[in-house]
Amino acid sequence: MTQNNRSLTLRDVSEASGVSEMTVSRVLRNRGDVSATTREKVLTAAKDLGYVPNKIAGALASQRVNLVAVIIPSLSNMVFPEVLAGVSQVLEDTELQPVVGVTDYLPEKEEKVLYEMLSWRPSGVIIAGLEHTEAARAMMNASGIPVVEIMDADGEAVDAMVGISHRRAGRVMAASILEAGYKKIAFLGTKMPLDHRARKRFEGFTETLAKSGIEVAEREFYSGGSALAKGREMTEAVLKRSPDIDFIYYSNDMIGAGGLLYLMEKGIDVPGQIGLAGFNGVELLQGLPRQLATMDACRREIGVKAAEIIASRVNGDDTDKSVTLTPKISFGDTLLRK
Amino acid sequence: MTQNNRSLTLRDVSEASGVSEMTVSRVLRNRGDVSATTREKVLTAAKDLGYVPNKIAGALASQRVNLVAVIIPSLSNMVFPEVLAGVSQVLEDTELQPVVGVTDYLPEKEEKVLYEMLSWRPSGVIIAGLEHTEAARAMMNASGIPVVEIMDADGEAVDAMVGISHRRAGRVMAASILEAGYKKIAFLGTKMPLDHRARKRFEGFTETLAKSGIEVAEREFYSGGSALAKGREMTEAVLKRSPDIDFIYYSNDMIGAGGLLYLMEKGIDVPGQIGLAGFNGVELLQGLPRQLATMDACRREIGVKAAEIIASRVNGDDTDKSVTLTPKISFGDTLLRK
DNA sequence: CTCTGAGATGTTCACGCTAGCATCACAAAC
DNA sequence: GTTTGTGATGCTAGCGTGAACATCTCAGAG
């Protein structure tokens, strides 16, 4: 309540309550034996003063920091917040706390964010992707703490890894599309040098098409802007160039939804004339007039599993080093089922 | 590169490079005079060892922590990430770093998150809303650091405040709707005990309607689930109950978009038969077949301004205590313009 | 009445770093 | 040669807390 400019310490509380700093520390951490009377006295004093413990000092003294660094490319698309939700849910039952860093898909920024985070000596790291700079990889190795790389399973992990195979996801979608009889297939997505997972999906996709002697008929990439609007624009552009396209595979649901809305507006028969599919399985799709075919990326599950691995490792338990989840394809109303 | 289990300290670097710890510290912080030769030697040693400074110890020693706590209700709707983007953009040019805490709209969780964050002794706090528990308010007061409450301007700030008046926003929207001649007006939104800003908009809205002798004809509230789908469902439910509704005011754009898609599907004339408006001005709307009327909540701008206030105050400069931004109404295609 | 032991409380020191001052080397000025 | 100043470097003393150990108190056993 009192407004001090000099910040409060254990000493202030100890003086106010007439016991030693150590006892105050014990009360505030519920550690060790303290009599009910003393506990009461200390808590009252702490509350009256408005004392908030200094975790900086605590962490230095105890050599323990209950933070888990979570490093992701972006917060503005729906995918990473959901991973985060999974992480938080699990960590809430432990004394660990997630701290988020955002890289904007830039390797150098990732390296910088990682450095910053490691300088706070967290108990673990959860980081999106398997592609990192040499230096970043070295830091994670040297840190001596559990590191879980998430979202992807196509590659080598520094330590542990939880994700799906995007190559496989691309292959499965391609197979379903071929099976449904589509032939002139377009791919629309983000500019991929930045987004390795989208790239891998694309690679898996073209690989399977190639086996049937089919090549992607059209492709278009975007970056920035409203994904829904971009989906619209790109779909229009592609159909203008190649009106005989009969399927469009979008690298995410948001642009897919834009495309879907555009085609419906134009009165085009989906999935009869043109089939569509996206990727991610975002909740948003449920509100669309027609269900977009998609593939669930197991986002929440990935967050949960990654957090569980960190939590166990912090407790000294041994755990899985590599968890590969299998995304489920959902045909929705925009991909003919054989 | 070397994998140590015992973590590295300045001493390790100092031994490896043959200078004192102090000099190493100076090199790594670019503080004070160090000869080019020594600097080179130290940097090489640090890099070889893979040394990452320990900010915990640094912060304790220097009594300075370059973190800014940003406390928001949610990451999963589009509004707060954009505020965050504004904050990050500004702080990127300073030595300050944002750290995000999420409250899920729960006052007790807000209090807990605030406590946790303050225990790391950040340089400032940016927190959404003006409504907090007694204890939270006390903590912010006692902290002695700059505190900026954001998003809202209807109320008393603990310290500084940046936001818009949601009451006014509600009033302005009501006035525009009345002016366009709509009479049977419905309101659809979130359950409001949790969301004070939505509540204030609703209050302003009904207040202005009341002045024209009009009452909200229907109302419906939701919580959880896909907002787009909820908008759809609620719109359907309301129109079933009162088919003569001629305007629906949604408490956010997402449910508004759901409603819009539903009405278009049903072939209802928007805005002729039924007008619609949302709130927030989210980017998503740009991809819809028709532009939803809305009001920009100045999200990014709020983040920018709040961060600027913190940055100045940290530098000891005096700044505005209260900044009220004025949202712009956008009529889109769903609200007749008089 | 003394002894024992467990619970309650206090003391000391280290955690890894930085502020503030002390010291040192060396070149320019006298 | 001596002085002086300045850049370069080192030393010491904390920062606020928690771990480990030391001490004290008091009830119950003998």
Q: What's the alpha carbon Rg of chain A, rounded to whole Å?
A: 26 Å
- The proportion of residues forming helix of chain A, as a percent range, comes to 40-55%
Shape of chain A: elongated
Most extensive protein-chain contact, per-chain counts: A-B, 60 and 58 residues
Order of helices and strands of chain A: HHHHEHEHEHEEHEHEHEHEEHEE
**Strand numbers in spatial order across the main sheet of chain A:** 2-1-3-4-5-11
Helix- and strand-based class of chain A?
A: alpha/beta
What is the beta-strand fraction of chain A? Answer: 15-25%
Oligomer: homodimer
> Which spans of chain A have pLDDT < 50 for at least 5 consecutive residues?
none
Number of helices of chain A: 12
Distance between the termini of chain A: 69 Å
For the secondary structure, the number of strands of chain A is 12
Major sheet size, sense and barrel closure of chain A:
6 strands, parallel
> Mean pLDDT across all residues of chain A, rounded?
93
Can you tell me about this structure?
- Two copies of one chain form a homodimer.
- Helix content of chain A is 44%, strand content 16%.
- The first copy, chain A, has twelve helices and twelve strands.
- Chain A has 338 residues and is of the alpha/beta class.
- In chain A, the strands form three sheets. The first copy, chain A, has a six-stranded parallel sheet.
- The model of chain A has no long low-confidence stretch (mean pLDDT 93).
- At the A-B interface, helix 4, helix 5, strand 2, helix 6 and helix 7 of A face helix 4, helix 5, strand 2, helix 6 and helix 7 of B.
- Chain A binds a DNA duplex (30 and 30 nucleotides) through helix 2 and helix 4.
